[in-house]
Amino acid sequence: MCLTTRFICFNIFEQYFLKNVALRNNPKNLYETRKIIKKKHCRMKTKNRIWIFHLIVMVIVLIPVNGCKKQTDQGTSPVLITKYVSSIKTTSVNCGGNITNAGGATITARGVCWSTTQNPTAADSKTTDGTGTGPFASVITGLTATTTYYVRAYATNSAGTGYGNEMSFKTYTDAVSDADGNIYNTMTIGTQTWMADNMKTTKYLNGDLIGTTSSPTLDITSESTPEYQWAYDGDQTNAETYGRLYTWYVIMDDRKICPSGWHLPSDPDWHALAAFLGGEGNAGGKLKEIGLDHWQSPNAEATDETGFGALPSGYRSMDGKFGEIHQYSPWWSATEVSLTDAMFWSTSYLDETVFSGHYSKHYGYAVRCLKD
């Protein structure tokens, strides 16, 4: 905060000691005494008044100028945040930041810095993304596949360099395509290699179409082994983001929907994934996409440090109702429970767990494929 005005106050007076008790106690005499003091005070020499005036002017003018100049020159380091990473690939990722306070000085450089160790600085690898305050976007390239990186936004002014919060991500391993030509990034977690997206295909591997209902909300309860796929709520834009919802009969069909060399994970596969990430009690947070672009608040403990990018795809029930998009991410398991039910696994917006259960094979759930 800059001091705009400072004053020095002078109180020049002559002291009169009322030695006479009668003078002190008599109001009339006291009145006469005050008049004498006033007259003598007003007879102050002109040269003294001029000197005092000049001194006051110097104090008022010189002190604030010198004080403010020093504070403005110094400033403070910028204040900013790191935007969450997106569009993770094998050798690149999108990131950025938002400078909320320039620190009282001009921003001369900004961008993101990254390293394979924590707390990267501008002395490590970095992007340069212009100057000034506000949000900015960065593209990190030249990364190594299947590698964990740490990233922070940075901004520099004359006072120094400030950093945003640290985030981490893991680059993908490779890419694979389905019968429709959709491309899926893959990531390695422990000894397993998973797809980084939910399946979107409308075809079996041999090119046959996977059926869908005439109405997205058609009740299929009475059908014995329905093989259908849907976009959530019948909205095809949902399929682009969250993948499609398939009945269990589709994914277990001999024509298969997972690419060649890939399969539908079973319960032991899911258990192995959870165990590698520290157990079912906290593995979910490491699998979930961070932020609230797709997940409902609070999307608790989401870090996506694995690059799995779990999305809340919701489900379709056998009676044609869609539900829990933005909240849960149920995926089918290849493990059968009974003639009517099969296992599923899911993460939740409420906590960091990954959990399992079983429902009717007529339900529509998302699918993730695992490399053989």
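The record above closes out task 2.4. Task 2.5 opens with a second protein, given below.
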Amino acid sequence: MLRTLTKLIVATLALAAASVPAFAEKRVALVIGNAAYKNAAPLKNPRNDAGDMSAKLRTYGFEVISGTDLDRNGLERKIREFSSAITDADVALFYYAGHGLQVNGTNYLAPVDATLGDEADLDFESIRLDLVLRQMQRSKRVNLVFLDACRDNPLARSLSKASRSLNVSSGLAAVDKTAGMLISFATEPGNVALDGDGRNSPFTTALLKHMDKTDASINDVMIEVRKDVMAATNSAQIPWENSSLTGQFYFNPNRSLTGKTAATTEAPTTTRLITVADSTVEHTFWTSVESSKTPELYKAYLERFPNGVYAPIAKARLSAVRSIAVEPRETATSTKTATTGTKFANLNTGTATDASTTAPIATAAAPAVVTSAPVANPYMRSKAVRVSR
């Protein structure tokens, strides 16, 4: 019994330790980090930003499509892959770190091979942000966009010099008409964000930090990100977001089990988060003990899952197993050695008679014969017993 219990506990703990969060909703993310620009000075942090963000999102149950230092064709392929993956997704997230610019109010993302010599180059050398947003808005879902793409951009400066009729800015423009979507910019529209001196940019550093907070909605996260970035940059950079979400969204899967999950574009939702440790481990534990006749195993289940799905059944089984264990001891006590003066019930009449001699019940040479019948006397507890040799 002890060996079985030990194996069960070890197996359950191993499964719990190896488990990764799972969600009732499908979550998909596209994460891009472009740093090694061929026609502009390379950026220090976007590869780190994208790599760290990809790792973090996977711990939150996201299927991550990622790419770094992508040329135009590579970036288009990743967007197409993302578009296919989010067809049935409940949450879609796009994160981009690298150069971006706005021209006449339209936002563009810069592949690493971009060359912007004139206005026509925008169509062939860059990717419009609208291309990604259109894919995300094809279905009603939670859409989250994080753009750490407002860095000081020499591509924008060269385009501005070549085409003075264009209104070109290294900063990105505000995005309108984004139903069911939150778009977060590393800094306010038209301003330039910093690449940062550490491993990550100020914006991504703060975002990675605050995504981990339990019971923090996306709105709570972005408020804390804004405060951290303003403190780190002496208010030179102020993160900004456009949001039309109609409910709350939570990144962290380790929230309280009764908390809210992702919002929808129609109404806020409140559901119970499902994790491997919460459902599969409990089910595995229960199926290991449900047929047992050992009280300790049911007790172990109830200690591990006091409010579990199978807790009422476990309590009933525990009581039943305990009563079965007690009943044989009571029967054995009633059939111990009978001595002179012990009264035995008459099987036919229910009356008691005295035994005249000491009568050992069971020996190796002459085993006792025990017979029983229903008791006529209502005051007798169970069965009338007569012992004969």
